[in-house]
Write a structure and sequence with these properties.
Elements: E1 2-6, H1 16-30, E2 35-40, H2 43-50, E3 53-56, H3 64-78, H4 91-99, E4 103-106, E5 109-112, H5 117-132, E6 137-144, H6 150-162, E7 165-168, H7 171-179, E8 187-189, E9 209-213, H8 223-241, E10 244-247, H9 259-270, E11 276-278, H10 284-292, E12 296-299, H11 302-311, E13 315-319, H12 322-333, E14 341-343, H13 346-349, H14 351-361, H15 363-392, H16 416-465, H17 468-485
Parallel strand pairs: 1-2, 1-4, 2-3, 4-6, 5-6, 6-7, 7-8, 9-10, 9-12, 10-11, 12-13, 13-14
Keywords: Transferase
GO molecular function, one term: transferase activity
Pfam family, one: PS_pyruv_trans
Length: 489
Amino acid sequence: MKVVVLADIGQHVYHVGDEAMGHAAAQELGSRGIDVVMLSRNPAQSRELYGTASAPTITFPWPPLERETYLDEISRVLQGERGALPPEDQVWDLIRLIEGSDAVLICGGGNMNSSYGWLLYERAAVGVVAAHFKKPLVISGQTLGPTLTASDGLVLQSLLESAQLVGVRESASHQLARDGGLPQKQLVAGLDDAAFFANPMADGGRAPYMAVTFSPGTGSLPAEEYFTKIAAVLDELVAVSGLGVVFIPHMADTESRDQDLWAHRMIAAAMNSENIEQLELLDAAEAAAITVGASLVVTSRYHPAVFATGAGIPVVSLSPNHYSDVRLSGALRNWGLEQFNLPVTSLLNGDFRTAALAAWEQRSAIAGHLQSLGEQRRAEAQDWWDGVVRALGGERSQAPASIAPAPSYEGATSWSADADAVRRVASPMGKRAAIAELELQREQDLRRVAGREAAAAREELQRLLGSKAFRVASKAWKITGKLTRREPS
């Protein structure tokens, strides 16, 4: 069976988490005898990294109206209006590829929302093509939303409804899909696709360390204050634990040295500790392996928390915004550790410090809690991938069961009440503000398009008024007018 797999891979700026999910999906399908074709922005790179076939994906424009228009044009092409797009358009290769395949998998990620609308529409286009050729479609390991404009919400709903099976990776996404009317028989609550991707190195050659990964996002705090407060917490952790600090970037342009590399430089510069190692950007497998070789993981990025929980490593995370909070809380809730994800305000009242120190002090109990769930979670993940292959093969058998709710970790977590109180107020406000901004962007797009159309109409009118044909016609109209005004003889 030949399956086309869409993952957000081959990007100019390498992203450990996106690549890890792609690798995990390719490995799970390959181990079950599936021939995989990875859609990529850099097929040559992906063929080398994945050891599979790879083909170009399609790129959608960023402006909301332009991506809506392009998706509509693709739909018109599939309905028989071949002139809706030129013959050299990128979508024709995708259409031929999916037509010649047996099924399509859209593997995990956090891009089915309006904040990353161009990626949502890329997935919608793949879904539309799959539906046209009646190819089974499975969607795996997704975060849905949380920020969706009205028009993008309809696109997402249509995509989900076209799938034989939809896997989501946190309870908030499961609820959003249910609220949208997706039947329970199509919907499975599960884990991130890369939950068990990480394999620890046999001998990393390092003294005991904590793995630290921070994105450049600082929420509502000024960058200097944000990074200085994180540095102080890490310094205190070093003092009480004796661990070194290994910074593991997950996303960066290695030429401009931005994103996580910049954030790590900012934090390291504010620290007093000397046992610090700032790694360069590594491939997904190596970054994951070093992460799970740590004694403690501290992060504001999503996949370090995923790798840590799957490997039984204590973790504490910081969410700089609502989008991060939904994903990180969801990832840790799948293991009963949601209280160890804190909002950015916890840097101000000391709760992040308290939680980080507690994660170290209670490390044995936390590791035991995670390990007690490990066998069950691995079995549930394998059951999911078995179900994926059945659905890709066109079987109409019962969907895999959702993962069982995790028992909450019972250690002392005095800070969690404050964090929950902040979420009850800040999360709805943050979501509404994000959606309002996205709707405004679309409205501005509409105005720009209307302005361009009006300007084009004025230009065409001026061109017409100045044309020879118009001058001739104008004289004719004048003569005709004189004739029609004469009194009858």
